[in-house]
Amino acid sequence: MRLTVIGTGYVGTVHAACMADLGHDVLGIDVDEDRIAALSAGRPPVHESGLGELLARNTAAGRLRFTTSLAEGAAFADVHFICVGTPQRPDGESADLRYVDAVVRGLLPHLRAGALIVGKSTVPVGTAARLGRWVDAVAPGREVAWNPEFLREGSAVHDTLHPERLVVGTVSRRADTILREVYRPMLRAGVPYFGTDTATAELVKVAANSFLATKISFINA
Q1: What is the residue range of 143's domain?
Q2: What is the CATH number of the domain that holds 95?
Q3: Which residue of 3, 32, 33, 68 has the smallest Cβ count within 10 Å?
Q4: Which residues, including other chains, have CB under 8 Å from residue 13's CB and lie 6 or more apart?
Q5: Per-residue pLDDT, 8
Q6: Distance from CA of residue 112 to its chain's centroid?
Q7: Is there a contact between 53 and 84 (Cβ–Cβ < 8 Å)?
Q8: What are 152-176's pLDDT values in tens digits?
Q9: What is d(CA 56, CA 83) in angstroms, rounded to the nearest whole number?
Q10: Structurally, how many domains does the chain consist of?
């Protein structure tokens, strides 16, 4: 299957390399030209065990390449993973979704019929529904799903290829079927798959982060 991964930071680079290693044809996209050049040369932007080898193997095999063009990505694939950052806003009250919104805005004029946008970024509950309404108004027939990541620094490659669970929030059976196909090698290996609505998928990630923060707070108390 052809996939794009938009945002080639920590999460995006790992996801792109791992999806290519599962056999998908993957196009990584980023606005940073220097980063794209480095990735195309097999140099990852972060140090992560096994990541350099995955990049080298899959770029050499032709399953993984990189570009700065969203239009090229939209023409290449029908499944688009958003892995851009959602930092805290300066007021400290909420997540800054400008980068997520910019990706969707950039994709919309170019998306092929039936395209599926899949968010992996950590976002407030309701973000996918808001984006879905936006997509439906501008490009009917395209959908938004949410598939949060649960990675540990230092073992992100292992956690992506051998996750404890897959949480996938969709609004249609068709979108769920597409993502089951994306993750078919993992499902065959027995990885638990939790199909939910998009709000639940978003909430699972926020709850997991909150739980980890609480544990750290008690450890440091």
Answers
A1: 2-220
A2: 3.40.50.720
A3: 33
A4: 28, 39, 44, 45, 46, 51, 55
A5: 97
A6: 19
A7: no
A8: 888 999 999 999 999 999 999 999 9
A9: 21
A10: 1
